[in-house]
Give the backbone structure.
Amino acid sequence: MAEHRLKPITPLGGDTSRKDTFQGVTITEVVDTALASLSARASQAAEFRAAAPKFFGFDLPAPARSASGGDYTAIWTGPEQWFIEAPFATHEDIARIVKQGFGDAASVTEQTDGWGRFDLEGPRVRKVFEILSNLDLEKLPSGGASRTVIEHLGCILVCREAGARYSVYGPRSSAASLHHALVTAAKAAL
Amino acid sequence: MSQTNRLQGGQIDRSKVLNFTFDGKAFQGYQGDTLASALLANGVRLMGRSFKYHRPRGPISSGSEEPNAIVELRSGARQEPNTRATIAELFEGLSAKSQNHVGSLKFDFLAVNDRLASFFAAGFYYKTFMWPKAFWEKLYEPMIRRAAGLGSLSMQTDPDAYDKGFLHCDLLVIGAGPSGLAAALTAARSGARVILADEDFAPGGRLNAETFTLGNTSGAEWAQAAVAELSAMPNVRILTRTVVIGAFDHGIYGALERVSDHLPVPSEGKPRQILWRIYSSRAVLAAGATERPIAFRNNDRPGIMMAGALRAYVNRWAATPGKSVAVFTNNDDGLRTASDLIAKGVKVSAVIDSRADGPAFSGAEHLRGAVVTDALGRLGLHSVKVKLASGEIRQIPCEALGVSGGWNPNVHLTCHQRGLPVWNADLAAFVPGSLPPGMVVAGAANGEFSTAAALASGAKAAAGALDALGLSAAPADLPQAEDAPTRVSPLWYVPHKGRAWLDQQNDVTVKDVKLAHQEGFRSVEHLKRYTTMGMATDQGKTSNIGGLAVMAEMTGKSIPDTGTTIYRPPYTPVPIGAFAGRSAGADFRPKRLTPSHKWAAEQGAVFVEVGMWLRAQWLPRQGETHWRQSVDREVAATRGSVGICDVTTLGKIDVQGPDAAEFLNRIYCNPFAKLPVGKVRYGLMLREDGMAMDDGTTARLAEDHFVTTTTTANAVGVYRHMEFCRQCLWPDLDVQIISTTEAWAQFSVAGPNARKLLQKIVDPEYDISNEAFPYMGCGEITVCGGLRARLFRISFSGELAYEIAVPTRYGDGLVRAMMEAGREFDAVVYGTEALGVMRIEKGHAAGNELNGTTSALNLGMGGMVNKKKDSIGSTLSEREGMNAADALNLVGFEPVDRSKTLLGGMHFINRGAPADAKNDQGYMTSVAFSPSLGHSVGLGFLKNGAARKGEVIRAVNPLANEEVEVKVVSAHFVDPEGERLRG
């Protein structure tokens, strides 16, 4: 991307990402991930299937799973639909980049700033989620992903490492409310 | 007086002395005490006044079933009424007050009600307070509420927090008595995920209250060892102080954990309570049993309690309610209380056994075939009258009486999905019948009362549940335990002409039940409503069975034929705060902040809630003291030069795919198939019934790529509607949609200098002159030196206007950059009020007009419903009733007297006609003061309005008796030809 003169702010309104530390868990506002939705076009299903491993270097994950390789992580979000993560620094224009890999076989939409991402890490992280989400995290393996409601908000939860590291994507406009809920839950649970 | 009734032993920590007050008087107890046990140890039997008759009462139980010892705990904002002293854990500094009396607890002026009892029989207020009707609300109801209170509220905000949480397990074990512990051990040792929940702070159930041994150890020690083993296992979660309150669908149970109730103040950040939703594959209900009383005259005297509770106080808490105690029983379990009391050195005055043929008892005088007929001692029992088998009446001195009428299995949770318990004649009790799916019942809850049977049934229940889950359990290693049979001879009440109390919480007597029968309220459900038996905090745990036994006797039916009332959650009371969780006050629901929120807040913007969004309503400048000054200025500045408004809240839906155009063609009533790339079109969406659903603009960015906007209010609803259409109505269309509302920060830039301002923002390689980028144009551009952006030439204000969008993280930067660029034009940011004023001046419909009752024709857009194609709502919009000659039309209104203001919701009435529904001509939907025109203007729906321009009618507000003469005009008050927006 060109060097433009607009300064970004984080979902929480800061200049830099926020980090909150508790006994056994840290909550980090993650702002260095670009995000796009990738949807297969039914009329070109075969081309789509062929393009996915070629472009990403791995097969797109099954329902409730994510898959990673190289710069990309794909998260299943619905029938024939995935969210694609990549480093923001190199993939700010992620929708255009992914679209080039799939052409007319896919519909790709930029989602980077539609969401705020918070990563919760630490040995006691599951305790925090007990008062946030009805997902059974003991049964969500590394690489598992699911929609879930947190603080009345439709969120996507990705298990990066079972029992240790999870990402929560929630609507960016409500990032402050979501963050408040995460921090409040951490204080209550830990 | 200091703990005069404290005995030796018990499971209390005498090294930890706790100071507390009751009704302002200081006492001491020990760690491990409940408020009730500590008061009893201090010789206090009188703990409350009854609901209706204000009779002096003391505790009758040692658990959550308590109907009498209901107190207010703590003070100030944390004051909590209606808590049970029997389960309130003692802590240092606890302050408790008795409730429901006027005057002191000992001298309650409202005890006069007891003298007037004959006027206050069941249903008295239905009969007594009938007239005059007007007195009910103003006099009778407040009077009754004052007299029949259940404690008082602090009227302050609860300072504590409550959480809601979610747990998952293979097996939920409800109750940590012998059967629950056996079940939990069996399951946990197999590796299953187990949650063990118990309402007590010390797991063990009756094992803590009894003197039996399990193997070589005491019951309490065995329970502690079992809990220690379970606690060390990673697959087990033990929830103490946790009541499972309900059995819901699909193995989901509700549970309330009292996290901090035993502390003076919750720790920083910690909740007072957590309402858990437990997802279980299987559940073992090991909830134990509740002892039931035998009703006799004055059986509510302080000092009279359940025999099992008395035993618990003596054994677990080393507290006796009196120096001399009598026991009244109809079963063997009552005898156990007598022997435990004797073992503790308490004098047992007599054992009154209603059975003439029951087992013999030694150690105290055993009066077989005898019944208690009366109790004496208004503020505290001093003696009972006993009718011996011979018929002789004898008065026996005693400070306490333990009563046992047998035990009722706690079947409540088995019935939460409408299961009915079944009668077991051997036990003279209801036992579980049909069960919720996945539940098994063990131990006393299943009518298996001996400790050995409880242990065995718990282990067996767990093994069966595990087997169903495909897990195998090793045979349980169970200790030797007592295995006494249950021998009970039913006795519900001792007949007498005086009042014998069935439901002590609601002051319901045997007589009241008989009265209900006499007056025709014979079904148990009617009995409950008529007498209030079984209502309030204890939900009749100690009273229901007695009441229905009396009713059965009256009707001549059996007890099982009489049946029970429906059991409903919650099992014990749950504070409303726990249901609310953290969703209270400012955190009631999450907020949505616009990309320019931070900047707007810096400017001192006044925000308004628009759904979950907080939008800037207006942005006051120094010296402005009234909102109208700010709004008028914002409108004038925008129409005069340029104004900027954050319109991110409008829904944005990305529509892609080879069939995207066809998809939109079917969604919108007007055509989209031929919209050229680089153009925007206004679209009106109808519901299936032909009424207007939503409107917005759609931009075609590529042949197979559209961006559709919706109103702020309908963003989610329209997206859901489109998903439904895509997935269910037209799965054959190759189209993909996703919301991008939040991904892009979008600003309206409006006013004659809008283009000049944007030319300083949009990178120079993009020509946005009127020729190159005309009205209704759109395109992907870059701004501020290369940032990807989108530009739309659309106008809601009626001015030359654009909407510009950048990725949301840059929205804050963009508004700052535009204000900087607009400095030379005196650019303003305008809020939703000015936005509203300008769209009303322009005659654009918004939520007030798209109100779900209006059609395209009503809105003046009937011609947009394209008949060359099919679209949702097109056919049904042709219905005759929606196309009547006098249909409502959207038109403008201005007051004849320009100084008058208009009011939204006013109805239109013709001159000279009465202002009533029959003469209604329509209604005003939107009003504003127009700074452009200098007077109020309004939009509204008027019958045949399009043909009535120039006519003067009345806008009336019958609620406030107001009316204004208005002239019917075009809805387009400003620039009706639309020259500005094309300029």
User: Anything to note?
Assistant: Residues 420 and 433 of chain B are 6 Å apart (CA to CA). The first strand of chain B starts at residue 13 and ends at 22. Chain B has a mean pLDDT of 95.
